Amino acid sequence: MKKLILSAVVALGTMSIQANVLPVSQNTNATVAIQSEYTEVTADAVPAAVKTALQTAYPGAKLDKAFVNEKKEYKLEISVGDQKATVYSDVNGNWLKI
Predict the structure, then answer these.
(1) Rounded to whole angstroms, how far apart are CA atoms 96 and 58?
(2) How far apart are CA 94 and CA 97, in angstroms?
(3) Is the dihedral of CA 62, 56, 91, 96 positive or negative?
(4) Which among 46, 62, 69, 96 could disulfide-bond with 36, CB atoms 3.0 to 4.6 Å apart, if both were Cys?
(5) Is residue 75 within 8 Å of 88, Cβ to Cβ?
(6) Nearest-CA neighbor of 34 among 67, 69, 66?
(7) Distance CA 84, CA 24 (A)
(8) Which residues contact 38 (CB under 8 A, 6 or more apart)?
(9) Are 87 and 67 in contact (CB under 8 A)?
(10) What does the alpha-carbon distance between residue 55 and residue 78 come to, in Å, rounded to a whole number?
(11) Which residues face 65 on adjacent strands?
């Protein structure tokens, strides 16, 4: 009788574990939202305030590529000597990320 009750408990426990795990394993799709996409622009399209802030913060820096998003935030790929970096600025030349 003990073995019968123990077997029933083990069988029910196994079923409940599978029931809890099964929906989680089937739901493997993930949604990734891109916060803001940047579009490449020419160096001439970068505002003077951003260029001035760049030369002030990084004297001798060369602007390799420039990108802008809908919020008018600029992603600047720069090089200073043999080092490369990506910096972020708003339209007024205030640094967002360095």
Answers:
(1) 15
(2) 9
(3) positive
(4) 69
(5) yes
(6) 69
(7) 43
(8) 67, 68, 69, 75
(9) no
(10) 11
(11) 77
